[in-house]
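Input.
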Amino acid sequence: MKTVQHQVQNPSAQNQHKGASTLWVLLALALGTFALGTTEFASMTLVPYIASDLGVEVAHVSYAISAYALGVVVGSPIIMVLAVRVRRRTLLIALAGLMAVANGLSALAPSLNWLIFFRFLSGLPHGAYFGVAMLLAASLVPPEMKARAVSRVIIGLTLATIIGVPFATWMGQTVGWRSGIGIVAILATITAIMVYFLAPNQAVPADASPKKELQTLKNREVWLTLGIAAIGFGGIFCVYTYLAETLIQVTQVEPFKIPIMMAVFGIGATLGTLVCGWAADKSALAAAFWSLVLSTVVLAIYPSLTGHYWALMPVVFFVGCGLGLATIVQARLMDVAPDGQAMTGALVQCAFNLANAIGPWVGSLVILSGQGIAATGYAASLLSLGGLLMWWLTHRESRRVVTLNTANCAD
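Output.
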């Protein structure tokens, strides 16, 4: 009887241990995305302080932000394809190490040109880390929970907008912008250590190869889904990049209120990511549609409320909710390209960071044209509307594929 009892209870204990282990792995992975979120978004909130310290125009500092995004676009697919035979834990440790070095150099940049170069280097590991971390997270849970597991990794980025970015902004105000970026080097180092001790050292799939991953590029649904992110997500970056400067110029708030507004954005991003993770497990396309509709509306409202701090706060909250689109797009790509998940994990980060390059650039055009910094909201709303157009094309292609597959099965 004792033997039977042991045999019944032992699997339960193993499942509990596995669950606890999974949570710790997700925590380690999320710390890395927390560091990435801090360096990506804090560089935007630190724009006024970087411009003042380096003696350049605010609009010109956006080049460093775009350089980071372009580093992601260049680094993500190259690293993911070339390292497809590298174990995920090993690759994550290497990427976190590169993250630490590049951000440390960014904090020491003596001029804007050097800052632009170091921010480009900082962007190289970004997409690959996200891609590998999300694939690892999805492999630890049942298929019907993969979007929620992915959202737990992405939540590190959204928590960065609540904690990391406001703290980095405060550091930029009190100590200097270099400390706000330099702290990311420490976070990245801790991430590498945690991943080494906590992440499973999974074997590389026997059939993994660069050629197989590159086959994903022939999938039209992949490219259309990426288009949703590349265009639609640009609106959020178009506004967020200049939010701190808008609060200074238009809202004319006291400096201590800027980190508070950034935290409000982060709370919206965190809740939006959790809700979108749940919704994407049910229907990724439907979730994407409603996320883009929400962003289009609130971004259009944004300019009219920039002169009123408290009225602007709920709008910024809902703009932050739009970050949940990242989870939705990733879940959608896992569904339409199951045999090329390493490539899609990289491409989705390329798309979002292409949006991160487009958004600030479009915003700078609006500002330099004399329309006023608050008018970035109107341009942002149009970008989000463009994302809805891409969603319609994606939906149409999805229906075509379903019809074709049904016809083939009937034959």
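DSSP finds 17 helices and no strands in the chain.
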